[in-house]
From TrEMBL:
Gene3D superfamilies: 2.60.40.2310, 3.50.30.30, Peptidase S8 propeptide/proteinase inhibitor I9 (3.30.70.80), Peptidase S8/S53 domain (3.40.50.200). It is found in: Secreted. Coiled coil: none annotated. Residues 31-114 form the Inhibitor I9 domain. GO terms for molecular function: serine-type endopeptidase activity. PANTHER family: PROPROTEIN CONVERTASE SUBTILISIN/KEXIN. Belongs to the peptidase S8 family. This is Subtilisin-like protease SBT1.5. Residues 139-607 form the Peptidase S8/S53 domain. Residues 1-22 form the signal peptide. One of its GO terms (cellular component) is extracellular region.
Amino acid sequence: MAIPPLSTFSLLISLLFISSSALNPPEYRKTFIVRVQRDAKPLVYPTHNHWYESTLRSISTASDSADAASGRMLHSYDNVFQGFAAELSAIEVEKVRSSPGVIAVLPEQVRHLHTTRSPEFLGLKTGNSAGLLKESDFGSDLVIGVIDTGIWPERESFNDRDLGPPPAKWRGKCVAGEKFPANLCNRKLIGARYFCSGYEASNGKMNETTEFRSPRDSDGHGTHTASIAAGRYVFPASTLGYARGVAAGMAPKARLAAYKVCWNAGCYDSDILAAFDAAIADGVDVISLSVGGVVVPYYLDAIAIGAFSASDAGIFVSASAGNGGPGGLTVTNVAPWVTTVGAGTIDRDFPAVVKLGNGREVSGVSIYGGPALAHDKLYPLIYAGSEGSDGYSSSLCLDGSLDPNVVKGKIVLCDRGINSRAVKGEVVKKAGGVGMILANGVFDGEGLVADCHVLPATAVGAVAGDEIRKYIQSAEKSKSPAKATIISRGTRLNVAPAPVVAAFSARGPNPETPEILKPDLIAPGLNILAAWPDNVGPSGIASDKRSTEFNILSGTSMACPHVSGLAALLKAAHPEWSPAAIRSALMTTAYSHDSRGETMLDESTGNASTVMDYGAGHVHPQKAMDPGLVYDISSYDYVDFLCSSNYTAKNIQVVTRKAVAVCRRRRAHIGNLNYPTLAAVFQQYGKHRLSTHFIRTVTNVGDPDSVYTVKIQAPAGVVVTVAPERLAFRRVGQKLNFVVRVRTEAVKLSPGSSVVRSGSISWSDGKRDVRSAVVVTLQQPL
């Protein structure tokens, strides 16, 4: 996913507001989200809903009945902010915008999903020395709200054996719907709701033969993410015989509340905001959101707005970074009050090699539980791009592009792109192929995802794909048919090195605020085993009628709930910690090395990864339980941050619900938000010497009497100083300040280019290291 320059964003946003009137007839309606001042409701109306309905009736055209006008209100919001979502024409939008008490009218966006050994890999072990699990009682009094595609409640991962009643603070409910009676909730799944008004306003009434009008999951994504966050211990667990063992979520006793907002056509802002609104009212402690879209200014970003209100209410919000990697500027969900999670590998994979007719073996990965190809027999091998009438379509194995007369009985090499990886296998199978090799393109690099295929298949990297194509070409020239077979080698454990930054994981820099390093950290997201619904085959293809209790998926969608579950454990162990303190504990204890003790690799290239790939590093749960110091941030600090970002008072009020009369005349520089990482961005503009400073405050959450000294690892070519160099604490909760000064020299760069250099500062008391990345970016303007 390429991120356009900010000037393009401004144009796009402007077009969103004017497109209805410029391109559509006056009666054409789209969904808009209307924010109002909380205290602006006229006294004549008993409730805000009465006011909203009256407003809609007053602005409607003559052809609308009063009931039809008020019926176009889709959602009413009370907790994320005061306001509503409604279907409005271009003329009505202008009338609403000019109405008294209206702060903003935002066009709706559609979002998309960012699509076990991981507890053991993360060091979360059961037994007497359970560490974080034991200290938090496995998260039993915490509630994780999962905003996703719903849930399949009958899965064993969601059983409530030995759990007490829901926490006394819980105010949520189980909303019944199609194939989801209210009694399906229990002491584990304590809440379930669904929101589809925004979806149906844009797409018409849902097809109830393929979707459930209820919290029941018809996709699988929500069931999978919920069980990663808080699934119970289940044994035996596997997918088609792969990854056998015990399945467990991060917080096995934490309670779950499912908020279904994602449907066949995507996840709509108005529904997402309704879910945030409900989750805040219900009393969740953590919100997990594996959904994202394009990056826009925070006051136009429904997820950022909803997450701010949740954070303001003391709720930790984690969100997936997106699957746009390995390119830069692809990270999404970048608001500083959201914990943004990228994806790494664990020490397990599923090798499936290609044995070529020339004797070469090429490594790949795959999951397939059906009849295997013979290991001692070679099958005819063809490249799809050489066989179809439309080389582009056939090379990608798009539906209908392969000739059965050519493909039958052969292994087919397909290129990655356009349609899903598993669907390509289905296309090959329908055309009579006996197997598929799926080759990465140059952009994908060497990152491999093990999919559940419907025929013998394997995925190979870009270099291997080129090797196989060359073998096919050379065989054709020599008049000797190319041949191959695919050999699955099952499940392999203790793979090294690990972790590795997953190729698909979205990367920085932060497109909206480059002074805030995003993603914040990474967590396991490649080939993760978790619960799966009955009605969806493991490949996710409609024709796949196989049933499995668990499935293996990859994506930052899978990484996000790992952090959500860990946040619940930390909140249970430290109930006084704020969302920012929890994030700080996770970030300052994260690591950037792998099992060899060297810098984590980037899966896409095999080279060392950077802070733009992994942020603070890979999450380390046991160390996060006792971080020593935390960087705390209040809602008012975020308001100051928005002021420093040159947002207007009205923009800030849209995000924060807080009326800001005026930002301070002398605005703090944007990097002074008390974030656990420090990022400086210098525009050279012909300057020779460049410098800035960061003011930070740390709170002691370790030993009452403790002294921390600073260790500096300066970025190459950068001078970093810290004052004071020693912090002496006398009590828990005490706060102390320090200043970090950064000085560097301009470097020769071509116009429009940049260079990134990274280092760190660490505060150590002899037992703990509180580490913060220091990132310096030098940019040469055009």
